Amino acid sequence: MSFKKEPDAMELGECTRNPGYQDEEDGGSVSDSNTAVPGEKEEDSAAVKLDSAEEYTQLKPYAGMPKEVLLLYSSQARYRVPREILFWLTVACTLTLVGLTITVIALSPRCLSWWQVSPVYQVYPRSFKDSDGDGVGDLKGIQEKLDHFEYLNIKSIWISPFYRSPMKDFGYDVEDFRDIDPLFGTMEDFEELLAEMHSKGLKLIMDFIPNHTSDRHRWFNLSRTRDPHYKDYYVWTDCNASAPKPNNWVSVFGNSSWTYDEVRGQCYLHQFLKEQPDLNFRNEHVRKEMTDIIHFWLKKGVDGFRMDAVKHILEATHLRDEPQVDPNKPPESITTEWDLYHDYTTSQVGLHDLLREWRAEMDSYSREPGRYRFMVTESYDYHEVDKTMMYYGTPLVKESWNHDRPRIASSAGQTYVRVINMLLLTLPGTPTTYYGEEIGMENINVTDSQIQDPAGKYNASASRDPERSPMQWSDDLNAGFNNKTNTTWLPVHPDYRTVNVEVQMQDEDSVLSQYSFLNDLRQSHLPLHRGWFCYVHADATCLRLPQRAGRTQPSFPHSA
Ligand code: GLC
Ligand code: MG
Predict the structure, then answer these.
(1) Whose CA is closest to 511, among 419, 444, 386?
(2) H helices then E strands: how many in the chain?
(3) Helix (H) or strand (E) segment spanning residue 375
(4) Which amino acids bring their CB within 6 angstroms of ligand 1?
(5) Do 68 and 50 contact (CB within 8 A), yes or no?
(6) d(Cα 323, Cα 24) in Å, to the nearest integer?
(7) Using CA atoms, how far apart are residues 351 and 279, in angstroms rounded to an integer?
(8) What pTM value is reported for the model?
(9) Contact call for residues 153 and 516 (beta carbons, < 8 A)
(10) Which residues contact 557 (CB under 8 A, 6 or more apart)?
(11) Which atom of ligand 1 is nearest to 455's Cα?
(12) Which residues are catalytic?
C-alpha cells in the first residue's frame, strides 16, 4: 500500500483558502500568511491586505478562519449581543428549572407510611374468633379470619394482649412478657400468624404494657422477697396492715392504690388492680428490662406497639396526697379516680423522655424499606388537649375508641353508627376501628352474675364487658364466633341474626358495605388520607367530593 501524494491534497502545516470565500466577489482574505496558498502569497497579499479592525468588520466570517480573525468578529456588537442574550437566557432557564424542581419536591406530600394509609383495626383476641371451641378467642382464630381484613382493605391490625397472664385484667396483667398465654395459643401459633399476615401484606401491632406486671410475674416475687437486684423493681413504701395507707392515691379501678404485702411487710403501689403492681421506672434496670422486651418482639418482626396506660408510668417520689376535686369531701370517702386531681400519679416530668427513647428504639428497627415500626400511646387526658398533644410525633393520628368504652351504637345510638364511621374514615388522621364497629355491633347486657371484668366487679356500672362480646360473623350458632360448643366467655348479642358480617356483605346498603366503600374512598382520594379536605358541596344531608375518573361518585348518607 503506497501513500502517493495527490497534487490537490492539502499538506500538513499548510492552509488553504476557503473555497466558499474564494467564490465571493468582493470578499477578501486576511493578510495572515496562513490563509494564503503558497506561491500566491505575494500578489494576493497586496490586494487583500487589511490593516485595521474597521476593515475587518467589512468582511464576512467564513468557515475555517483563524482564531485571531474569529476573535475580531466575535467582539462585534451584532455577534456579541445575541450571544450574551442567549447565554443569560440559558442561565435563567436553568435556574428556573432548578427552582421549579425544588418547589415541586418541597410542595409534594411525602410518601405515606403503611400506618397512615390504612385504618388500624383493633382485635380483642378473647372475642374475635374461637378456633378450638373453649369459648375464648385465640390466635388461630384470628388467622382463620384474615380474609376479613382483605375484604375491608385494612392493613394494620392491633391485637390486644396475648402474653402469658393470670387474666385478672384479661391480659393487661402480664406474667411473662416473652410468652403467649395457652388460652390464646403457643409461640409457634404466633409466629405462623405473623408470617401469614406479612405474606398477605398485613401489619401486626402488639399491645405493650409498661406500667405494671401481674403480681405473679417473677420480678414481683423476687422484689417482695427483697432480692438485691429486684427489690426496687416496684414502688414500695412503709406501711402496715392496719394503719391508714401511705397517702390518698386511688386506683383507676377504685379504692386505694396501695396494698400491704405480708411477705415484704410494706405497701406496693398499683394504679390498676392490686394484682397489677406498678413497676418503678426510676430504676434503670426496669427501664432496661422493658426496652429488651421491645427488642425481643421487634426482632420477631412485629410492626409496632400500642403503649398501654403510659401516663401512669411515673409517680412523684415525695408521695404527697393528691388535691381533692371537692376539698370539702371527707378524706375517707375519696375512693374513685374522679375524686382527685392526679398531679402526682400521672404525666410526671420524664415520661416523654422515656417515650422518646422507645420511639428511638422503633426507629433503629425501621431502617429497611417498608419496615417502619409504629408506636401509638394510650391517652385519656380528655379535657387537656395540650397534654394530649405532647404524645404526638405527627399531627394526624386520631385517638381510638377502644375496648374500655361503650360501642358507638350504644353510646351515640344506632342512627349515628354510619355517620360516625363516615367521620372516622373521612377526617384527617389514621382511624382506629374496634372490632365489630364495621357492622354496627351493640353493647350486650350483662347481668351482675355474668360480670367478668374486674373493673365491673368493683363497680358494676364501670364494667367493660358489654363492649367485649363475641364478634358476630354469621347467623350460625354463637354468631360463628365458635361453632363447636355452646360456650362463649360472654354472651353473644341477640341481634346477631341480622347484625353479622355474612349478612351485611350481601347487602350493599349495610353498615359494612358503607364502611368498606368509605375505606376504599379514603385510600383512593389523596386529600382524605393526607389530611387535606376538598369538597364540591356540603349541606346538612350531603357531602360531595370532587369527581375522580373511573369511580362512581358517592353521596352519603344514603340511607341513614
Ligand atoms: C389500659 C387498657 C385497659 C386496662 C388498663 C390497665 O387502660 O386499655 O383495658 O385495664 O390499661 O392495663
Ligand atoms: Mg406507674
Answers:
(1) 419
(2) 20, 13
(3) strand 374-377
(4) 169, 172, 209, 272, 308-309, 378, 402, 404
(5) no
(6) 108
(7) 14
(8) 0.80
(9) yes
(10) 418, 419, 422, 541
(11) 10
(12) 308, 378
Q: CB within 8 A of 7, min separation 6: which ones?
A: none
User: Atom 12 (ligand 1): residue with closest C-alpha?
Assistant: 172
| The amino acid at 257 | S
Nearest to 155 by CA among 436, 433, 507: 433
206 CA to centre of ligand 1 in angstroms: 14
Q: Which of 403, 498, 416, 524 is nearest to 453 (CA)?
A: 403
| 206 Cα: distance to centroid of ligand 2 (angstroms) | 20
**Considering only CA atoms, which of 193, 183, 234, 188 is closest in space to residue 213?**
234
Given a contact cutoff of 8 angstroms between Cβ atoms, the answer to whether 432 and 402 are in contact is yes
Residue nearest to atom 7 of ligand 1 (CA): 309
What are 288-297's contacts with CB under 8 Å, separation 24+? 289/219, 290/210, 291/357, 291/358, 291/361, 293/177, 293/178, 293/208, 294/208, 294/358, 294/361, 294/362, 295/361, 296/177, 296/178, 297/206, 297/208
* Spatial CB neighbours of 92, under 8 Å, sequence gap ≥ 6: none
Judged on CB neighbours under 10 Å (0-12, 13-18, 19+), 375 is buried
Q: Please list the pLDDT of the chain residue by residue as tens digits (560 residues).
A: 333 434 443 333 334 444 444 444 443 333 343 443 444 444 444 444 444 445 555 567 778 888 888 888 888 898 899 999 999 999 999 999 999 999 998 888 778 889 999 999 999 999 999 999 999 999 999 999 999 999 999 999 999 999 999 999 999 999 999 999 999 999 999 999 999 999 999 999 999 999 999 999 999 999 999 999 999 999 999 998 888 899 999 999 999 999 999 999 999 999 999 999 999 999 999 999 999 999 999 999 999 999 999 999 999 999 999 999 999 999 999 999 999 999 999 999 999 999 999 999 999 999 988 799 999 999 888 788 888 888 888 655 554 458 888 999 999 898 899 999 999 998 888 999 999 999 999 999 999 999 999 889 888 998 999 999 999 999 999 999 997 777 899 999 999 999 999 999 999 999 999 999 999 999 988 777 776 666 788 888 887 876 654 444 444 443 33
